[in-house]
Amino acid sequence: MEPIALASFEFSLSKNLPGKSLARNYFVVSDVRGKVDQLLCDTDGTLCILTSAGLECLKAQVQHPASHEQYLGHNSQQTFWVVAMPASTLRGNYQWLGLRAQLGQVDATLFSLAGRALQICQWYFDHAYCGRCGQPTKTDQVDSARVCLACQLRFYPRISPCMIVLVVRDQELLLAHHVRASRPVYTTLAGFVEAGERVEDTVHREVYEEVGVRLGQLEYITSQSWPFPGQLMLGFIAEYASGDIQIDGEEILDANWFRYDQLPQVPPKATVAGQLIDLYVQRCLVKQLPGKK
């Protein structure tokens, strides 16, 4: 039962499929009483995407049907789906691993689709019943929503917008060590967008709350889906304006200015934080070239 091979991965979320029969391929996620946070991998940690035949073979091995089949997307050759299985049923040469184990190990687009698999399946479990009237819901086959059969209230997959910002001052980067960090990593600042707030306002507010400095010009750089569990990271580089670093002591354990060529341990480039840091380091390096200012 071999997972499918994906040499050059791409996919579309459109439900308007090409006018031909496409092969179906499956992500398999673990179901622990409605909590979905792990993916089927082989024993060396490789993410498994199964063909229809491979899925049937797995179901026969574990003697349990896969459930909650949900559409994820397609490319020109195949469609992608997610199914859930009870975590305790897994046997053979497979294991359950969290999505973080794939960070930097797979193509960024495949990482996004694997994250979508977890998010879509969790959304299905979380909204099987209406939060307003308690009646069952069904999946809308046209719109990406769960719809209450009684009151017609619609539930969409959770997406939480979150800004992430690298604050810079000439050749220096402001980096922080967060309370939740499991390793001694210094990284950028981040925070959730509040209701009624522009993301630009979030950048200014969160930076001042966490490290006490004021910002000048903001430059939007890029975004990244960050399904832990459902953030959309909006990445900025911000110019320092004024103020001394004063950490909040709640979310931030330490923060400091670091020269671009004397950085502490930082996040990998597979993360948007790592990309922002790398981009600014490259800009600083270019300025050091003869004839550059």
Automatic annotation (TrEMBL):
<dbReference type="InterPro" id="IPR015797">
    <property type="entry name" value="NUDIX_hydrolase-like_dom_sf"/>
</dbReference>
<dbReference type="InterPro" id="IPR000086">
    <property type="entry name" value="NUDIX_hydrolase_dom"/>
</dbReference>
<dbReference type="GO" id="GO:0046872">
    <property type="term" value="F:metal ion binding"/>
</dbReference>
<protein>
    <recommendedName>
        <fullName>NAD(+) diphosphatase</fullName>
        <ecNumber>3.6.1.22</ecNumber>
    </recommendedName>
</protein>
<dbReference type="Pfam" id="PF09296">
    <property type="entry name" value="NUDIX-like"/>
</dbReference>
<dbReference type="InterPro" id="IPR020084">
    <property type="entry name" value="NUDIX_hydrolase_CS"/>
</dbReference>
<dbReference type="Pfam" id="PF09297">
    <property type="entry name" value="Zn_ribbon_NUD"/>
</dbReference>
<dbReference type="Pfam" id="PF00293">
    <property type="entry name" value="NUDIX"/>
</dbReference>
<keyword id="KW-0520">NAD</keyword>
<dbReference type="GO" id="GO:0016787">
    <property type="term" value="F:hydrolase activity"/>
</dbReference>
<keyword id="KW-0378">Hydrolase</keyword>
<dbReference type="InterPro" id="IPR015376">
    <property type="entry name" value="Znr_NADH_PPase"/>
</dbReference>
<keyword id="KW-0460">Magnesium</keyword>
<keyword id="KW-0479">Metal-binding</keyword>
<dbReference type="InterPro" id="IPR049734">
    <property type="entry name" value="NudC-like_C"/>
</dbReference>
<dbReference type="InterPro" id="IPR015375">
    <property type="entry name" value="NADH_PPase-like_N"/>
</dbReference>
<feature type="domain" description="Nudix hydrolase">
    <location>
        <begin position="157"/>
        <end position="281"/>
    </location>
</feature>
